[in-house]
Amino acid sequence: MVTIADRIARLGTETAFAVSNEANTFAAQGNKVYPFHLGDLNLATPSTVVEGSWKALQEGKTGYCPNAGIPQLREALAADVSASHRVGYGPENVAAQPGGKPTIGKFILALMNPGDEVLYPNPGYPIYESQIEFNGGIAVPYGYVEGEDNFGLDFDSIERGITSKTRLLILNDLQNPTGAECFPGEHERLADLVRRHDLYVLTDEAYFDMRYEGTSRSFVEQPGMAERTVILYTFSKKFAMTGWRLGASIGPKPIIDVIAKINVNDESCSNHFIQYGAVAGLVGDQTEVKAILATLQERRDVLAEGLNSIAGVRTYVPNATFYLYPNVTEAMANLGMGDYEEFRRAVLHNTGVSFTSRLHFGRAQPAESEKYVRFAYSGIDTDEINEGLAKLKAFLES
Ligand code: PLP
Questions:
Q1: CA gap 70, 270 in Å, rounded
Q2: How do residues 180-206 score in pLDDT, each as one tens digit?
Q3: Considering the domain 6-44+288-396 in this protein, what is its CATH number?
Q4: Cβ(304)–Cβ(61) under 8 Å?
Q5: 349 bridge partner residues
Q6: Which CATH number is associated with domain 48-283?
Q7: The overall pTM is greater than 0.90
Q8: What pLDDT, in 10s, does the model give residues 25-44?
């Protein structure tokens, strides 16, 4: 009998992968599956990145490299993010990571003491809750309020959640799973709270560049916030590189130095030759990056229109991310179902349409009465979206 350390009981997981396994098993039994469950892309990584990585590989960039990333990547990312965020970052503000996800745990390790409280979005990316609790902190959820054409931050729950023990705030703007982005004024209001309560902020910007119109604005633009905020940056989504594993932590030098020290202890360095590919992706021709966005936008429009045509389902159409978060309260009631997993499985087994639900994005809060599911359209082509939607509509309206 192996005795596992007590702290592992506090470690959460990403249950969306379990949904993916279930869908794969269903498909292996000869069933057609329409995969809306994972935020992965079925689109090719731009050739700039592939060729840049390949060249570096051929040149023998296969040994260890600096713990915080090669200087060329740190410089290119600092320049890129400074321009898009209207903030003056230098290479010393950037630490490369094997993906965006490691920034979450490292930010928490660097700044949170056991017993500290951390505000985090719920529904939200489940790794926040997992890493806060695993590292001995107290995870304090805040929510979103569904509006006509967006989800807004629930400032009541944020303000209610702040105590003398609150140390960190996690913001995910543009958000998974809701697709929400902060309204004008929300950043100002948050920055005011951060100043008043002396908090540090993680702004998870995994989807910052995944937008179809307009310009993303970062929380770090707020006066004084760049000094107390770490950005989670990732190549995963913008460059369709989920499996390559490259991202970065970007923020104040004293925090980035600590994160680089954690890198030494964890993985030594991020993949060496891929960092050259990433530089080529950042500074090279952006045609293929734009094509990824154009494809996603087309999928979004088809999916949103189809979902909104189904009785009992309504979704707003976010301008960013590659998720829709429809309200399915009525559709579930029409089937006589109140349980998320029962609904999800019934839809999978009757139609092949596979999605995640509110349950996969943090512990549901007691006061929640509306029901939501998440559709990711990053891994499914338009024809399949249409086919899946037709089956879904027939089932939900039957
Ligand atoms: N943050 C959010 C909100 C995400 O949705 C994801 C991935 O789905 C990540 C971070 C981590 O992405 P990665 O580690 O692939 O960069």
A1: 9
A2: 999 889 999 999 999 999 999 999 999
A3: 3.90.1150.10
A4: no
A5: none
A6: 3.40.640.10
A7: yes
A8: 999 999 999 999 999 999 99
